[in-house]
Each structure stands twice: as C-alpha cells, then as structure tokens.
Amino acid sequence: MSQEYSAATIAHFTEPRNVGAVEDPDGKGSDANPSCGDRTTITIRLRDGRVEAARFRTFGCTAAIAAASALTDLAIDRTADEAATIDPGDLIRVLGGLPTRKEACALMAVGALRAALIDAKVKKSSASIQAAKATGG
Amino acid sequence: MKRVYLDHAATTPVDPEVAEAMARVFREVPGNPSSIYAEGRAARALVDRARDEVASALGATPAEIVFTSGGTEADNLALRGTLKARRWENKEGPGLVISTIEHHAVLDTAEDLERHAHVRVTRVGVDREGRVDPADVERALGDGTVLVSIMHGNNEIGTLQPIERIGAICRERGVTFHSDAVQTVGALPFDVRRIPVDLVSVNAHKFYGPKGVGALYVRKGTRVATMQTGGGQEKGRRTGTENVAGIVGLGTAMRLAAERRDAESARQARLRDRLIAGVRTRVPDAILNGHPTERLPNNASFCFPGTQGEALVIALDLEGFSASSGSACTSGNTEPSHVLLALGLEPSVAQGSLRLTVGRETTEADVDALLHALPPIVERLRSISAVPV
After folding, report:
1. Least CA distance to B310: which residue of chain A?
2. Which secondary-structure segment (H or E) carries B340?
3. pLDDT bracket for residue A127 (50, 70, 90)
C-alpha cells in the first residue's frame, strides 16, 4: 500500500465521486498546474443559489484526482457563496493531509471550483442584463 | 498480497550469495586494506580479488578498475576527472560532447562544468527511438573536444546506443570516450577489448549487488585527475578507505552476472517481448518508448495518452505491482522526463509514461498478472481525465 497518501486520499483516487461533466452547466471552471501539466475542469449546476450538482474531470496525479473528487463532494448542497470560501487547507484536512509537494493539487481543485462559481455568477448577471434589455427596463 | 516487482532498472534485490559474501566480510575481516599487518592484508586480498572479478567480467586488467560509491560517482569522476586533467589543452576551454538523454549524473555534471569550469558542452540529440546518430557525434567534435560521453543503455526507455561506432570515431579523432553502462553491464556482454571505450561507469545494485558501490573502468593511459584528496587509495584516483564489504559484493555480483548472463538475459528478453506484445494488444493506442529491437533485455517503456504516470504507478502499487514512471511528480520532480521530451513526444503524452523492468525473479505468471491489471487502470484514469484521447 502507498504510505505516502492517507486512506481518505486513496479512497477518493480509487473510487472518485462526481466524475464527468454536468449537462448544461450554470458554471464551468478550469485550473492547471503549469509546473507539471496537471489540469482539472469542474462544472456546476445551481438551484436557488445552492450547488445542486458538481462534477469534475482531472488529468493528473493521485492527489489531483482525489482533491477534485473530495472538493466536489464538499461543494454540493452548499450555497455558492459558501462553496467559494472552501480553501485548500479545508480540502487537505478532508483528505487526511497531503504530502507537502502535493499541496498544489488542492490549490488547483479549489481554483477550478472558484472559476466555475464565478462563471455562474457572470452568466447569471449577463442573463439578467439581457432580460432587462429585452423588456426595455 | 504477493507483490510483483517490475522496477529492476531502479534497483535489484541483493543476490543471497552476494549478501552472504558481504556478511562474511563484516563478521570476519575487520582490517583496513592499507594496513600492512595480517588483518589489513586479509582485507587487501578481498579487495584485490573483487578487482580481478570486475576486471575479468569487462575484459580489463585489474589496474584499470577504480572502485567508487556507485554510478553517479563513476560518471562524475569520468567527466570531472578528464576535464580537470586536460583543462589547459584549449584556450577557449576544453570541449565535452554528450547526448540529450544521458542520466542526470552526466547531464547535470556537464551543466555544472559548463557553468563553473569553462567547459564547452555540445549536446547531441536522438531520433524518435532514442538513438544517437554517430555522424552527429562526429560533427560535434571540434578542435578542443577532449571527451565524449554517451550512455550504453538508457535507463528510462531502454534504447541501446551504437557505442562501438561512436567509440571508433572518437579513437580516430584522439578524443577520450566515456560510456555510462550502468544499465547494461551485468545484462549484456561488455568487453573493453572489443569496444573502443576509455571510461566505463558500473553500478553494483543494478545487477543484484549492494547499493553504494560501483566502479569506473579507466583504460590504461587515459588521464583522469582525482576529484578528492586524501590517503591516496585506488592509486590516488579515488582516495578514501575502501568499502571492503561493498567491493566484495560488487565483485561477487559481477562474477555471478557474467556466469548467468546469456541464459538469463535471453529469458528476460522473452518476458519483455511478452509484456510489450500483451500491452499493445490490450491497450492498442499505447506508445512503446525506445527502439523496438535495440533495447535492454528487461525494459518495456510505454506512454498511455490521457493518463498521468504517477497515478498509474500508485494505482498499480495498490494492486501489488511496483513500476515507475519517468514523468512528472513521481520523485518530487515536476518536469516531464527529459528523455521522453527528447524523443519528440508531446509533454502531455510524456506525462503518461510507465516503465516496467523485469528481473531474475520475474515469471511469466507475473507478466500475465500485470497484463491483467493494467488495462482497467488505464481505462479508469482515462475516464477521469480531462484530456480527450
């Protein structure tokens, strides 16, 4: 067994939750680690300001996959604002710790989620501007 | 869980006969080989015998063998020692020619010499199969070139270099030729009477000997300055009290490897071919790294596009297989492998590399177990991957 990773990290790696992409997502965000080439894309669907669904795709190492899996789990059912406050430290705690040189993997997952949440916000506000324009308001 | 070790290019388990020979030294031979009384003479006799064994396996004379702490030190001594001994030969600085796929022990030493010792380094590229073209080496030779260093067998992709032809060119031009043969000595015949090579690096733990001991073959008449100063052991070329047990382990391992080599390497090559054919059948878009035939008998190296090497290694580890990846993240190194990039692979493809190296204890059943375990892992990682395959 790999001593380097915690049982929680290994569990998220071998049986990741929420793999894939949400259909017609409200928000989509990606982040990459330029030093190793790993990347993660997260798609989300919101309902009444809450994250109803979150899915991920990750090209990367064990920690990168586990971080994205654990993060999507954490984000689901939170309000968009709450989800945006999840920080890499929270994620690393949920994973039972990460090797120091793998901490950037948590940062990448959080970066992708925050980008998806911002994307949803931007889309929503441009939709309401469009709606306002359409009604002449 | 029974583990299947498929990382013999990283290191090999110590042969029981080697371990026993070393244990006997620890138990029974406490002397310093430099001492002239009985205990010292006993230790000296063991070091001399090991030197004979190493020399005999290489077709060398005992005086041409310098014991070191391993392959890295042998490479450093070859490069630094030669360039130090011949640093005044050219007013622009002496020239060194290496390939782009050398081990870091050569690559980084060359870079260090370039930065700090006014050595002019020329790097020769490789083709898609990892072969150096001897004509490229010839073109790289300039007036001030004193040393060419081209490895024999590549540790990552297994490609063998045409060192006989490169050596012949160097000899004709009066340039010293070093070859890092850490991956090949023990696995393939290596006779310095046949190969025109002046310096050869050897490492015991790659052929079932102990870690921390190796040797540099120095052809008679080749000028190599010492890198460390002290009591003058190894004829002043590598001073410091000899690692007697380690040297005995190296000699024993070398002798055993030479005895078993032909039959064992043929057996391992059959396992390697079974592995390569099996992976290609089960994962049709797998890319075989390195040369299809001119490769180490134990090395099968692949890239699986859409996967990342560290994840492959950990997933295999969880199922009881030990393998390695030359790609990002595996050893704290976040750069893709310089060897795979030198082949012209895209960085994202190079990231999905997996090296499987069989050894003496590997069986056909081990290979088949790997062939059973690997395809679902590749498929699973691809299903998670953000990169379209």
Report:
1. A61
2. helix B338-342
3. confident
